[in-house]
Amino acid sequence: MYELRKKGHFDFLLFASAFALWVFGIFLVYSATHIHESGPLAGIYKQQIIWVAMALLIIIMIISIPGRIIFNASYLFYGFSLVLLAMVLVSGIETKGAGRWINVAGFKIQPSEFAKIGLLLALSKYLSENKVSLYHISTFVIPGILILVPFLLVLKQPDLGTALVFILMALPMFYWAGLTLLEIFFIISPAISIALAGIPLLLSYNSESSWGIFESVPWGIFFLALIAVLYITRPPIFIWIGSILANIATTTVVTILWGSVLKDYQKMRIISFINPQEDPFGAGYQVIQSKVAIGSGHIWGKGYLQGTQSRLSFLPEQHTDFIFSVLGEQFGLVGCSIVILLFLVVIVRGLMLTHYVKNRFINLLATGCAAILGFHVFVNIAMTVGLMPVTGLPLPFLSYGGSFTITVAVLVGMLLNARITNQDF
Amino acid sequence: MAFGKRLQDEQHERRFKSLIISAAISFFFILLLLSLINTQVMDATVNIRLSNENSMRETIVLPPRGRIFDRNGEVLARNRPSYSICVLPYKLRNREAVIESLCKIRDANGEAVFDSLELTRQFRRANSRRFDATRIKEDVSIEIVSIVEEHFMELPGIIVQTESRREYPFGSSAFHVVGYMGEIPEKEFDTLRHQDYYWGDMIGRTGLERQYEKIMRGRCGREYLEVNAYGKSMGAISHISKIEPNIGHDLYVSLDIKLQLAAEKAFPDTLKGAVIALDPRNGEVLVMFSNPSVDPNIFSAATSVRGRTWAAVASDRNLPLNNRAIAGTYPPGSTFKPLSGIAGLATGKITKDTRMAVSCAGSYRFGSRVARCWKPSGHGSTNYIVANQHSCNVFFYQLGLRIGDEKINHYARMFSLGQITGIDLPGEKTGYLSGERAYNERFASRNWKWTQGLVMDLAIGQQQVLTPLQLALMIGGMGNGKEIFRPSLLKEERNSDGILVSQKKPVVRNVLDIDQVSLDINREAIAAVARPGGTGARASVPGIVVGGKTGSAQNPHGDESHALFVACAPYDDPVIAIAVVVENAGGGGAVAAPIAGEILRYFFSQTAEGTAVYQKYNPAGPPKPPPVRRPPPPVPVVETPVFSDW
Asked: For residues A176 and A350, what is the distance between their CA atoms, to the nearest angstrom?
C-alpha cells in the first residue's frame, strides 16, 4: 500500500479495467445490432465508438484540471444540472411514455444522468464540511433538500430507477460522513418492513391455499428484532418512537392498500412487475427472453455473434438496458464473471483511494462514485437475470448511450483525478 | 489547510469504512454471480432448450401428393401450388395491431382480404395451439402473399405457408371414383396425429383419395429453419439437416376416362342412377359413373368457398356424394332372371327345352295369390331362352318354385351377389339376397314370415336389393363362365420418377362351378335379349353379340320403376360387362339398354381394347363410329310402366 501511494499518480489498473469494459461494450453493441442493415439501429456501434472516444477525452480533461476547481464548482454544477432537469419537464422529448431527453445544440441529452454527478459533487462538498447524525436530525435538513430536489424532478419524468439512484448513492456517503451502521439500519428499516410485509401478500395472491395469519410472520419476526436492537442499543427516545412508528405505519399502509384499495388488475400489474413469469407476454417478455439468453450461454457461451436470442431479435433493448443478456448468451458464465470482476476492480480501486487520501471531499466523492456504479451494475444485472423488476437503469461501460457513457467517464475521470491531485487543496 | 471547515478523517476510520462499503458491494456482486450460476449452470439445459425452441421452427414439409392416372395415362387428379396466411399465436405480441394491419391489405379488386371480426375469432381459436401455425386465410393470390411478406416486421406471428392443393381436370365426371380431399375431421385427428398428420392437413375423404391415402400422401419431411422474434425465417440451421419428404406415389387405375365421359354423355343428365363397366377377364373397372355428381375441385377451394358449396351439396336431397355404383342398392328386377335360369339349369330343374306346367296368359295363380306378368296378353308356353328374351314372369315364377330360395341364393352368392365384392373403394354396400332365413330375420320385428309365394318374387328379382357393381359382376360371370374376379381400380403404383413400385394382380373372387351345357344355354338366353325382338335390342352392337338383360324394378317407394340393364360383350367371351341403373325412369329396355348400347358401341369402336376385340370378330370391317345419341323416346315402347316387369 505504501508503494502504491508513493508512485501511484495514475491508477493504471482502474483505467485499464474501465477501458477494457468500454471496448467490450462496443463489441457487444455491435453484436446486438449488427443484424440491422437499415433503420435507426444500423451501424449504431460506430456511434458508441464516438461516445467512448469522447469519454476518453473527458477523462483526460478531468485529470488535467486541479481538484480544487472541481471542489469549488460543485454547487455550481449541481445547480446547472437541476436547471437541465427542470428543462426536461418543460420541453422534454418523450420516448416510451417517459420524457427523459432534451435537445441541446442538436444533441439529445439525458439531464438525469448529469444530475447524478451534480448531486454527487454537491453532497460531497456539503458533507465534507458537515457531519451528519441521526441523533441530530437537523443535520439532515440541507443534504435532504439536496437529494429531494433532483429526486422529485426525476420521479416526475417518470423514472423511478434513476430517482432511487439519488437516494441509494447518498447512503454510503452519509455513512462516510458520520452515520453509524446502526443509524443506517434505522433508516432502512421501514423499507425492509415494506418488503417483508408485501412479499408474502404477493406470493399468496396466486397460490391456492391462503396463508392466513402467516402472511405477517416474516414482518413480525423482523419487528421483534428491531425492538430488540432498539432495546440493546438504547438510542434517544425520538429514534425509538420514530422507527417503531415508521415501521408500523409502512406495514399498515401496505396491508391496507393491498387488502382494500387496489383493484385486481392493479395487483396483477404489481405482481408482473415483481415477478415477470406471471405475465409472459406482457411485462415479463423481456425478462424471460433475457433469462433464456443468459442461461443458454451456459459456461462458455455460444460464441461472439452466435447468440440466437440476440441475433434474432428476441431481446428487446438489447443494446441498452439488456446488453448484459447479449454478453451472457455469447460469452457464458466465464464472460459474465470476467465482466463482473472488472466492475469490481473499478469500484474497489476507486474506494481504495480513501486508504491514503486524507481529503474528505475526495473520499466522499470516491464513495459516491462507487455507490453509483455499484448500484447501476447490481440493479441492471439483477434485472436481466430476473432478480429485480425492470427499472430501465443502464449498465455502466457496456450499455449504448451517450449521456450515460459520458457520466461514467466523468466518474472514472474524477476517481483518476483524485489520485493525481491528491492533497493539493 | 486552506479550508478550516473541512473535516479530516482518521486513516483507520477511512480504511474501515471503505472496507465496509467494498464488502457490501462485493456481497451484492456475489449475489449476482450466484444468480448467474443458477441461470447458466443449473438451469442451462432448460434455457438452451427454450432458446432453441425460440429460434428454431420445425416446418413440416408436406410432400406433393401422388397423382392419379387412368388406364391410358390421362391425369384424373394432380396438384397445384397454393399459399396460405397463417398465425403463430405465441409470436403474437399485439393482437389488435396485427389485426388492424391485416385488415388494411386489399386484393386486386380493392376489397379487404381480412375481416377483423373473423380474425379475432380465428386468433382466439388459434390460441389453443399456441405453438402451431394456424391458417387464417387460405388459397390466397401471390400478390397478397408478397404484400404480407413485405410487412413481416409489422406482423409478428404471421407467416406464409405454401402447400399444394388437389386439382381434378375431369371435375365431376370421375368424382365418385377419385373422391375428394378435405380437412381432417376433429374426431379422426386424435388417432391420425400420431401418424404424421397435422392439424389442418387435407386427407382423402372418399373414393381413391381415401382408399389409397397412405400411398399417395407420402411421408412428411422436416425442415428446421431459424426464425427471428417476428417469425421471419432467417434460413436453414446449418447443424441440423433437414429430413427430405417422401413424395407420394402415383396411382394408375383401370378406369378409362374417355369411356367414362361417353357413359356420362349417354346418361340422362336429369336422372339419378349409375353406370358401371368392368372387364370380366380381370375385374378391372373401366367405367364407374354415378349421377348426380359433384365437382371435387370445390373441396380444394378456400374454406369460405367450400363452406358455401358444401352446404348445397350436403343438403341436396339427390345425394350427389353417394356413389350409386357401389353404394346404391336397387331391386335387380328382371336382370336377376338369368341367375334364376342358370340356377335352374345347373341344378337340372330345367333344360333347354323345358316348358313350364302353366303357360303364360298374363298372370299366374299361386294359392290365393294372382301374380301378374308384365304383358297382359301373355307369352304363351315358352322355353327358358324365349322366356328370358321376353322376360316372361310366369315362366320364372314357376321356375323359382321349382328351385327354391336356398338354391337360387346359392348361385346368387356364387355370382358374388349380396356380398361385399371387395372393390378397392370405401363405402361399398352389401345388398340383400332375401330367402327364408334372411327374410325372417330381417322382418322379425314386424312379425312377417317367409312364405312359399315369396320365392316367386325372389326368382324375378323383386325380393333382393343389389348394387350395380354386383350386377355387372354377375353378367360378366355369366359370359365368362369360369370365374369372377374381384373388381378393382388400382392397376399400378409408381413412384414420382415413374418407376413401378407395385402392380395389382387380378384376384379370383368366385369360381363358377357350373357345367358347360348350362352355361351355354344361359349365354344363349342372354344373347337373345339383345337381339332384335328381345327386350334389350337397343343395346346391340353391330358385329358383336351382346348378352344382356333388361329390368324394370318396382320401386318400394311407389314412384316410377327403376330402369336397369346389364350386359356383357361379346356374350360368350366378354371383355366388358356393364350394369346401368336409372332411378325412376321406367322400363329397362327403353331407358337403360340404350345407355349400355352407346357405351358398348363406343368401347368397340373407340378404345384400344375394344377395337382389338372387334377386329378379331370382324376381320374385314373396321369398327363403325358410334351413332349420335338420340334422346330416349318419351313413352317407353317395349315395356310399359303400367304393368311393370313382374
From this structure: 14
Are residues B578 and B518 located together in one domain of the fold? Answer: yes
ipTM of the complex: 0.92
Same domain, A330 and A364: yes
Domain count, chain B: 2
Say if CB A308 and CB A302 are below 8 A apart. yes
> Would the CB atoms of B20 and A181 count as touching at under 8 Å?
yes
Facing residue for B8 by CB, picked from A295, A308, A358: A358
Residues of A in contact with B18 (CB under 8 A): 351-352, 354-355, 367
CB contact under 8 A, A294 and B55: no
The dihedrals phi and psi of A341, each to the nearest 5 degrees, come to -65, -40
Question: Are B611 and B466 part of one and the same domain?
Answer: yes
Say if residue B228 is in the same domain as residue B345: no
Q: Which residues pair with B330 in a beta bridge?
A: B466
Comparing CB atoms, the residue among B15, B31, B230 nearest residue A313 is: B230
pTM over 0.90: no
Cα distance between residue B207 and residue B517, in whole Å: 40
> Residue A243 corresponds to which cell in the numbers above?
422507527
Does residue B129 sit in the same domain as residue B241? yes
Judge if B65 and B122 occupy the same domain: yes
pLDDT at A53: 96
Q: Is the domain of B479 the same as that of B365?
A: yes
Same domain, A160 and A250: no
Tell me the per-residue pLDDT of A238-283, one tens digit each, with 9 for 90 and over: 888 989 999 999 988 888 888 777 777 777 767 766 666 665 555 5
pLDDT tens track for B468-486: 999 999 999 999 999 999 9
Q: Classify each residue of B118-146 as buried b or exposed e, where b means 16 or more C-beta atoms within 10 Å of its C-beta.
A: ebeebbeebeeeeebbbbbbbbbeeebbe
Closest-CA distance of chain B to residue A88, Å: 30
∠ CA A91-A94-A98, rounded to 5°: 110
Find the CB nearest B29 among A129, A344, A386: A344
**Closest chain A CA to residue B30:** A340
B283 vs B488: CA distance, rounded Å: 6
What is d(CA B644, CA B561) in angstroms, rounded to the nearest whole number?
7
If asked whether residues B443 and B513 sit together in one domain, one would say: yes
Counting as low any pLDDT under 70, the low residues of chain B are 1-9, 129-132, 228-240, 556, 558, 621-646
| CATH number of the domain that residue B445 is part of | 3.40.710.10
3-state secondary structure of A293: helix
Instruction: Give me the domain span that covers residue A224.
Output: 187-261
- Cβ within 8 Å, pair A354-B15: yes
- Fill in the DSSP letter of residue B112: B
> Which of A126, A145, A179 is the last residue in one of the domains?
A179
Number of domains in chain A: 3
Tell me how far apart the terminal alpha carbons of chain B are, to the nearest angstrom: 139
Tell me if B228 and A313 make a contact (CB, 8 A cut-off): yes
Q: How many CB pairs under 8 A join A and B?
A: 161
Question: In the structure grid, which three cell numbers stand for residue A37, read together?
Answer: 442493415
CB under 8 Å to A191, separation ≥6 — which residues? A250
Residue B283 belongs to domain spanning: 258-293+323-617
Is A371 part of any domain?
Answer: yes
Kindly report the nearest CA distance between residue B1 and chain A, in angstroms.
Answer: 7
Are A296 and B9 within 8 A, CB to CB? no
Q: CA of A373 to nearest chain B CA: how many angstroms apart? A: 10
B505 and B548 fall within a common domain: yes
CA distances from B333 to A263, B326, B438, B562 (A): 80, 17, 19, 9
Smallest CA-to-CA distance from A116 within A411, A363, A343, A346 is with A411
Q: Does A274 fall in a domain?
A: no
List of chain A residues whose C-beta atoms are within 8 Å of the C-beta of residue B47: 291-292, 294-296
Q: Is residue A69 part of a domain?
A: no
Residue A165 lies in a domain: yes
